[in-house]
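FAQ

Q: What does a record look like?
A: Structure on top, sequence underneath. For example:
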């Protein structure tokens, strides 16, 4: 019987990487550089934003620290705002955008929300709903296909995956990078937490009990905290693009709650035992991983993956990442509501609260909107846009090629170009995607 060959001391090229792709390197930090005309010589034209403004993605990633996020992003978005502004697009002026944030930030009564269109190179296009939970932080859910707008849809529930607790200043961001894709302000405004349906406070609306009085005095943040603990959140989004009186239901089942908590407590694979890039003599001798199953990458690729950082800086980053996983909150944010990473919530349109009534015709049940209290489409061919540019029921979120920012008027493809990452081709995105997916598969197998 043939014996297993010992691991060679020399690195073996990764058979899954094409030779023509070994030269790719990705720098997502975009350090500030003085403009010397080299960009014009290589690309033929200047980017629409200044070279120093390409640090926005680094600020979003926490690699660059600034003192005043509002002034910083206010200046960037002012430069990026299209003129003339696209017609039939709801608009939140820069002044109102700034005023809205100032009224809610650093306030215990703040109730700021934002819906980001996130075109991620790995996860694909989704929409991040973020709700302010305290003075400086917000809870976040990643919603596939965007907010629902059709009451007669066959798929009433949408998957809303709980993500990390973000800093509130992330509500200001409209940027792009190679590693995280593009972020676009799809809608923003304030939220109102509504009592759950069937509650005694709704049934006995005229009662003046002390408990009802105490509940009515709660801030929106406190109401959201209480609803979050019951795993049933009912809220109205008062935005710029969404229709007036737009109400959503967020619900987390007990099964998904238990599964999410179990998943979040699993130990993460150690870097030495289960790493793609092996720079030394092999894997950890105490590891249970079979050395014959480890695929080594070329030295050039291994060095490029480290980004040239020092060992001390690498260790600090690993400790910061571990703290983020432990608290489910990015640096600067505080998880006061007990958010758990990647729990799967169910999001649906509250049809009755939005003004729809249930009707029956020819044996079929359907929902019809009372047009007297809601904006209507200007005409039959006017694609889901109301008289003031807002969406009108029924509406559908149509993706990065169609949707635009309510602040700058840009589309999803405009943001990477303005951030200076327009030179990244789809092939580079594919390489990054395949590498990340392989890593996720290895980490998943290590849990089994």
């Amino acid at each position: 019987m043939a014996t297993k060959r010992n691991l060679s001391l020399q690195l073996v090229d990764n058979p899954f990487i094409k030779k023509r792709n070994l030269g790719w390197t990705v720098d997502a930090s975009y350090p500030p550089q003085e403009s010397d005309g080299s960009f014009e010589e290589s690309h033929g034209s200047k980017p629409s934003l200044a070279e120093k403004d390409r640090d926005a993605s680094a600020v979003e990633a926490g690699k660059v620290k600034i003192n005043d996020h509002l002034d910083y992003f206010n200046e960037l978005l002012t430069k990026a705002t299209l003129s003339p502004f696209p017609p039939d697009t709801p608009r939140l002026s820069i002044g109102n955008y700034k005023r809205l944030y100032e009224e809610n930030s650093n306030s215990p009564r703040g109730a700021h929300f934002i819906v980001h269109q996130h075109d991620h190179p790995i996860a694909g296009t989704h929409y991040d709903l973020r709700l302010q939970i305290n003075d400086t932080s917000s809870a976040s859910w990643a919603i596939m296909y965007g907010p629902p707008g059709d009451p007669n849809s066959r798929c009433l529930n949408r998957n809303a995956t709980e993500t990390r607790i973000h800093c509130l200043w992330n509500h200001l961001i409209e940027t792009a990078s190679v590693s995280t894709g593009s972020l676009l302000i799809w809608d923003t405004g304030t939220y109102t937490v509504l009592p759950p349906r069937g509650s005694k406070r709704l049934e006995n609306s005229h009662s003046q009990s002390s408990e009802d009085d105490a509940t009515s005095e709660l801030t929106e943040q406190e109401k959201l905290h209480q609803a979050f603990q019951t795993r049933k959140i009912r809220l109205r989004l008062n935005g710029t693009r969404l229709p007036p009186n737009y109400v959503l239901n967020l619900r987390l089942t007990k099964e998904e709650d238990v599964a999410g908590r179990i998943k979040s407590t699993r130990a993460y694979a150690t870097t030495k035992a289960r790493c793609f890039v092996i720079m030394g003599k092999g894997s950890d001798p105490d590891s249970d991983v079979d050395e014959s199953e480890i695929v080594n990458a070329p030295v050039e690729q291994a060095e490029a993956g480290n980004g040239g950082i020092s060992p001390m800086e690498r260790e600090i980053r690993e400790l910061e990442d571990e703290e983020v996983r432990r608290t489910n909150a990015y640096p600067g944010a505080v998880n006061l509501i007990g958010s758990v990473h990647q729990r799967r919530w169910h999001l649906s349109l509250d049809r009755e609260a939005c003004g729809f009534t249930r009707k029956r015709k020819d044996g079929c049940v359907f929902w019809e909107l009372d047009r007297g209290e809601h904006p209507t489409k200007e005409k039959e061919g006017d694609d889901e846009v109301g008289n003031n540019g807002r969406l009108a029921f029924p509406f559908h979120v149509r993706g990065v090629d169609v949707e635009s920012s309510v602040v700058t008027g840009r589309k999803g493809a405009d943001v990477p170009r303005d951030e200076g990452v327009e030179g990244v081709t789809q092939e580079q995105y594919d390489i990054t995607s395949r590498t990340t997916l392989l890593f996720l598969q290895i980490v998943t197998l290590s849990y089994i």
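Q: Is there anything notable about this one?
A: The mean pLDDT is 76.
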